[in-house]
Amino acid sequence: MTQDQQTGSRGGRGSGAPGAASRWVQRKMNARTNRKIRRGRGRFMGMDLLILNTVGRRSGRPRETPVTWFTDGADTWLIIASGGGSQHPDWYVNLMAHPDRASIELPGREAVAVRPHRLEGADREQAWQRIVDAQPRYAKYQSKAEKEYPVIRLSPR
Question: Residues annotated as region Disordered (predicted)?
Fold first, then answer.
């Protein structure tokens, strides 16, 4: 998607929006990672990965995105919408636009329909603390960002 979620302007040179070539590379990398997750190998840099299935907010087409996740109790998962710090990632925008059509795939398992809930206030702070305790790199990553990253709890639907 070339649409800048923050300003609504079209991406172009100097706008920070990825070009067609980098989007193509990202799609190829995501597809490769998704294949690994489906074969039961869902780890990257010491973090667990899942496949987040969403629907494009404008296109209505299915989207599959590998995302790091953290446990939040039995059958509940936490994900972070970092998107490089300046704008929300496409998967987050799609998830919030069509929350009733979301599902996840954990390594080697069937898809599970999920209900996303963006955490706020004390709930977010508690979840965020568990995340940075498990992966301190997220605290460093967040400190360099212009905005607070949304934390989303996914629970089975």
Answer: 1-29
